[in-house]
């Protein structure tokens, strides 16, 4: 199925399935050593106490969106996909900004009045860019789809971006970590293997072959100890290669958190 095709016929929105897949991503990151279980604030059975009174018209928001807001885990200030971090709805700032999606992701004037009608009643900002130029993910519970969208200076509305079946997208995110296509970095970033950057392929090979990820023989403690200096060394080597080539110096890539393609 093409990511540009709506796949609502595959399955309707199911909160338990969605939460399960998001928690799977947290679990694989914990196992990879990105953070620990103590860093995660799990929602109680009744959900987190989200302060919806901060919103202009909370009754406008679909009950399924509010329920998911309350039940999402809260974690550390770290990415769980390249260049994207969770939106934490216990945070007053995150909660309010999450209903003005276009402006949040464009980095517009924070002092200007919010347009909370920008977020349709059935959508939830699931992942937000670290910076205004970074991508973000929006979940639409009405159609069980996810939209990946990028910076939109003078660009389209977030709903103009292609939609993909949400469970399929979330499973692929999880599997990208399991296959070491994505690797959590010690600085809170997520690195993506890319043939354009040979050092990332070497990192993927090392994690899979030398440290036995993700099997039962995974050398987790060794990886947690060895990964930070290893990644720093690989990045420095790559930087020196690019910096040493005067013809490529102006095109030196961003080595940290380089972004996703159109799909995960």
Give an account of the 3D structure.
- This protein has 264 residues and is of the alpha+beta class.
- It folds into 2 domains: 15-174; 180-251, no CATH class.
- It has helices spanning 15-32, 63-71, 92-97, 101-106, 166-178, 198-210, 220-243; strands at 84-86, 123-129, 136-140, 145-149, 163-165, 182-184, 190-192.
- The strands form 2 sheets. Strands 1-2-3-4-5 form a 5-stranded antiparallel beta sheet. A two-stranded antiparallel sheet has the order 6-7.
- Helix 1 runs parallel beside helix 5 (166-178) and helix 6 packs antiparallel against helix 7.
- The model is unreliable at 1-8 and 245-263 (pLDDT under 50).
Supply database-style keywords:
single chain, 264 residues, alpha+beta, two-stranded antiparallel ribbon, 7 helices, 7 strands, 34% helix, globular, disordered N terminus, disordered C terminus
Mean pLDDT across all amino acids = 83
| Main sheet: strand order | 1-2-3-4-5
Structural class: alpha+beta
Number of β-strand runs: 7
Biggest β-sheet: count, sense, barrel?
Answer: 5 strands, antiparallel
Specify the helix fraction band.
25-40%
Rg over C-alpha atoms, rounded to the nearest angstrom: 19 Å
Number of domains: 2
Topology:
Layout: H1 15-32, H2 63-71, E1 84-86, H3 92-97, H4 101-106, E2 123-129, E3 136-140, E4 145-149, E5 163-165, H5 166-178, E6 182-184, E7 190-192, H6 198-210, H7 220-243
Antiparallel strand pairs: 1-2, 2-3, 3-4, 4-5, 6-7
Helix pairs in contact: 1-5, 6-7
């Amino acid at each position: 199925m093409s990511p540009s095709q709506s796949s609502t016929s595959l399955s309707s929105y199911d909160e338990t399935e969605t939460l399960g897949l998001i928690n799977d991503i947290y679990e694989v990151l914990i196992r990879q050593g990105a953070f620990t279980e103590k860093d995660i604030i799990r929602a109680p059975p009744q959900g987190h106490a989200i302060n919806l009174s901060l919103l202009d018209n909370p009754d406008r928001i679909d009950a399924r969106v509010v329920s998911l807001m309350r039940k999402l885990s809260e974690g550390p200030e770290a990415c769980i996909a390249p260049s994207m971090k969770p939106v934490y709805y216990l945070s007053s700032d995150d909660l309010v900004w999450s209903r003005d999606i276009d402006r949040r992701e464009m980095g517009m004037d924070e002092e200007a009045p919010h347009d909370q009608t920008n977020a349709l009643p059935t959508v939830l900002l699931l992942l937000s860019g670290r910076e205004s130029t970074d991508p973000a993910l929006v979940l639409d519970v009405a159609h069980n789809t996810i939209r990946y969208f990028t910076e939109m200076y003078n660009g389209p509305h977030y709903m103009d971006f292609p939609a993909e079946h949400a469970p399929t997208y979330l499973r692929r995110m999880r599997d990208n970590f399991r296959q070491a296509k994505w690797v959590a970095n010690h600085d809170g970033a997520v690195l993506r293997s890319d043939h354009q950057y040979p050092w990332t392929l070497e990192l993927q090979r090392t994690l899979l072959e030398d440290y036995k990820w993700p099997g039962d023989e995974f050398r987790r403690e060794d990886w947690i100890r060895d990964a930070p200096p290893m990644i720093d060394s690989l990045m420095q080597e790559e930087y020196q290669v690019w910096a040493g080539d005067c013809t490529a110096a102006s095109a030196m890539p961003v080595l940290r958190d380089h972004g996703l393609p159109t799909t995960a």
